Every structure is written in structure tokens, then in C-alpha cells.
Amino acid sequence: MLDKGPVRVLLVDDQPLLRMGFRLILEGEDDLCIVGEASNGAEAVSHVRELAPDVVLMDVRMPVLDGIEATRAIAASDSDAKIIILTTFDLDEYAFAGLRAGASAFLLKDVAPAELISAVRVVASGDAVVAPRVTQRLLETYVRGAGAGMDHAGADGGGQRAGAEDGGGQRAASPARPARDPLLADLTPRENEMLGAMAEGLSNAEIAHRYFLSEATVKTHVRRILTKLHLRDRVQAVVYAYETGLVVPSNADY
């Protein structure tokens, strides 16, 4: 990360005071740089195109275009920006909708400064998910009801992952176990194991320990999985594993 220069951050929130607070925290770090601010989702999409940030801190409820739709638009573009959704509660339907739209992580709005700084760095690195087990619990809570009755699920069913070519929107639209995605046939048995371990919320180090592999080997497997399944990053692989039925929520009654 250091040889690429500072991590470029875009702040998106309709509350100037919140943007100011995040700016003061992040600008105190030598390896982080605020490249711009936006007060609504439409400005965010435009700024991502113009400013090419590495990380976007994205509020959900904003005028003109909300954060979920803005996230979906950015994820569907050719931008490499990683998006962190800002939410009010850990188990928040907006956080879940944001992950499904293409966000890489979510944070509480009252996050501690040190945690905010760490989250931006982690997401920018692309190597891990912020609070993976919280992400897992969020998915277990919302995955079955995700296509039905959620305000921000999206007009196309909301379940389609960024970059998917086929009708993935039906995956979370009903309690029935979804059909197996043909793309999974491209994974090797070892890659299927890796994907399952990622969906459990295991880190690369934990996966390496479980399967007696080096972390470098695990990272190679993860990269190949993302490429084969046309996924943006690790958290999208976790969402994908739940939505395709590869992982069944522990509270499910299929």
C-alpha cells in the first residue's frame, strides 16, 4: 500500500459535521488522504469517476440518490473503489443491502477513531473483511428475507451480485434453496473448501492453519475464486456463498 502512495478516501454523507469529524480523524494519518466529499449518492458516483478514490465511506440515507443505489452504481462501473457502508446498528438491513449492492464492509456511525482508521486500511488492502463474524451474523439474519419486502433490495431483485451475467436476483427472493450456480462448477475441490471457510468468517491465517497451507497459498486461492465467480472482493464471496445456498444460515428452517 505504501509504494502506491496514501490511500485515497472519499467521504459521502449529507451531514457536514459527520464528514468533518471523519476528515479530522483520517487526515491525521500519513498513509490516508481525503480526496473529496459528497453530500448525496449522485455526487458520490460522479466523484468516484472523477477522483478515483481507493475507499468510499458511504452513508445510506441521503437525498437525490441514497447510499445503496450509489453503491450499486459504483460496483457496476469499472471503478476499483472499495465501499464501506455507514450504518446505525450492527444487524442493520441497510448494512445487508449495502453488502449485496457491492460494498466491501460496514461500520457503525459512532465507530471509534482507531477502528475507523483500521477499517479503511484493511478494506484498501483487499486482504480481509472488517469484522467478518459480524458480517456472517448479519447475513444469517437477513439472507432469507433479502428479496422480499426490503426497501433497498433493488428493482432487479437485489440479489444479483456485481458483475453477474445471469439471473442471480432470484437467489434470496424466496425461502426455497436456490439452484446451484453453474459458475461453481469452475471451482476446484480445494477452492470450494476455501470459499466455505471464507463464508465462515475465517481469516487467511485461520484458513491456512485449518488446511495446513501457507497464507500466500490461501491468498492465491482467494484471488482465483474471485476471478472465477466474477466477484469484486472477499466480502462479496461471503454474500455469494449465502445467496447461492453454499452456506445455509444456522437459523434456517429449509
Description:
- This protein has 254 residues and is of the alpha/beta class.
- The chain folds into two domains: 2-126, Response regulator (Rossmann fold, 3-Layer(aba) Sandwich), CATH 3.40.50; 140-243, Response regulator (Rossmann fold, 3-Layer(aba) Sandwich).
- The protein is 43% helix and 11% strand.
- The protein is built from ten helices and five strands.
- It has helices at residues 16-26, 41-51, 67-76, 93-101, 113-125, 132-142, 189-199, 204-211, 215-229, 234-243, and strands at 7-12, 32-38, 55-59, 82-87, 105-108.
- The chain has a five-stranded parallel β-sheet with strand order 2-1-3-4-5, with helices on both faces.
- The longest helix has 15 residues, at 215-229.
Summary tags:
alpha/beta; Rossmann fold; 254 residues; 2 domains; five-stranded parallel sheet; 43% helix
Summarize the structure.
The chain has 254 residues and is of the alpha/beta class. The protein is built from ten helices and five strands.
Indicate the topology:
Elements: E1 7-12, H1 16-26, E2 32-38, H2 41-51, E3 55-59, H3 67-76, E4 82-87, H4 93-101, E5 105-108, H5 113-125, H6 132-142, H7 189-199, H8 204-211, H9 215-229, H10 234-243
Helix pairs in contact: 2-3, 3-4, 6-10, 7-9, 7-10, 8-9
